[in-house]
Design goal:
Length: 364
């Protein structure tokens, strides 16, 4: 889990201090001033806290980065629900989040990563690979908005573009035992050349699509959901080497001439069902660990066990994120550093009075 988060910004592992600012935004042009005012107020809050906690550090690099963000008007009319800004002395970046957040600033030795974790587990910002046997399109979904990704001219968006002269005018590959005579065609050994050659064409095309997506550097590090008929899905999964391809979920339906409304509606149904299954699975795990007496809801014990790698999975109530909770972030970082998992869940009495529950790797 930590690798998925820190792969997005490799410098998050560098020494702090860090300033993290989380901003909800309407992203409406007529409320641009309001959105930027939110950020300006949080900048001042971070400035004051920075000087209080790190009086020996030079604040000027941080201030320069934050002012650049503030004056970047294009940033404030983007297409996501919220923004998270992370700054240290030498680096700064902003990332979009597809979730509701409270406007908050954090100044600490480590970046505040809990919003990343919540956003990552919801499956609300991802790509859709809409794939037919002879064509594909790529879409980006952010929350419930969908846009088609503008691909370069050399992208293998159709089988003919990808394979070129390797297919005949009917879409079948030359050779492979296929012979022609006059206006009729025959096949060696009674084998159905049409069926076999169409299968070869499809496999070669899927190889080309997979190779292009693997090498296309303009794509963000987002999960890719496959939208295709079952027979195309199984074939593509067999040949694909895409690291971000979701092999556990897919929309088993035809893209229907790539109708964007149909693709979005069917994908949202599938993702909502997956999110629900994942949540049920997390609480099933909680019940199993409790029966095995491997659950802790004591905050002091949780912090201690996190430092020693005894926590396999940590559940944090979203209520803790609504406050300026440095402790929850510190414990989460310790769990991730020792190979554990962290989940942000909606308020639930089963998470305990401290709104945090740890599933332990062994009984204590």
């Amino acid at each position: 889990m930590k690798k998925r988060i820190f792969d997005q910004l490799s410098w998050l592992n560098q020494p702090g201090p860090f300033i993290t600012i989380v901003v909800p935004s309407t992203f409406k042009v007529n409320e641009l001033a309001k959105d930027r005012l939110h950020f300006k107020n949080l900048m001042k809050e971070a400035h004051d806290e920075f000087h209080q906690k790190y009086p020996e550090h030079n604040y000027e690099p941080y201030e320069r980065f934050l002012n650049d963000f503030y004056h970047n008007r294009e940033l404030w009319v983007g297409g996501a629900h919220s923004l998270i800004f992370i700054v240290n002395e030498k680096h700064a970046d902003v990332m979009r989040l597809s979730l509701d957040v409270q406007p908050t600033s954090y100044v600490d030795d480590a970046p505040h990563i809990l919003p990343f974790i919540e956003d990552m587990q919801r499956l609300s910002h991802f790509y859709i690979l809409a794939l037919n046997r002879d064509a594909f399109k790529l879409f980006e979904v952010s929350d419930r908005d969908i846009v088609e990704v503008d691909l370069p001219d050399d992208a293998p968006t159709t089988l003919d573009k990808a394979l070129g002269d390797d297919t005949n005018p009917t879409g079948f590959q030359y050779g492979s035992g296929r012979v022609g005579q006059g206006d009729s065609s025959g096949f060696y050994g009674g084998v159905s050349g049409t069926r076999d050659e169409r299968a070869v064409d499809r496999k070669n095309y899927f190889y080309a699509v997979d190779r292009f997506l693997n090498e296309y550097e303009a794509l963000d590090n987002l999960q890719i959901e496959l939208f295709s008929l079952p027979e195309n899905r199984s074939e593509f999964l067999e040949v694909s080497k895409l690291i971000n391809l979701d092999r556990d979920m897919g929309v088993l339906s035809s893209p229907e001439d790539f109708n964007i409304k149909h693709i979005l509606n069917e994908t949202l149904k599938a993702t909502e069902a997956k999110n629900k299954r994942n949540l049920e699975s997390l609480y099933d795990d909680l019940d199993r660990y409790r029966a095995a007496q491997r659950v802790s809801q004591d905050l002091v014990l949780i912090k201690e066990k996190a430092q020693y790698g005894a926590i396999g999975t940590l559940y944090i109530s979203k209520e803790r994120l609504d406050n300026k909770d440095y402790l929850a972030n510190e414990i989460a970082m310790s769990v991730l550093d020792t190979g554990g998992l962290v989940y942000i869940l909606k308020s639930n009495l089963r998470l305990g009075a401290e709104k945090m529950t740890a599933l332990l790797r062994y009984k204590v």
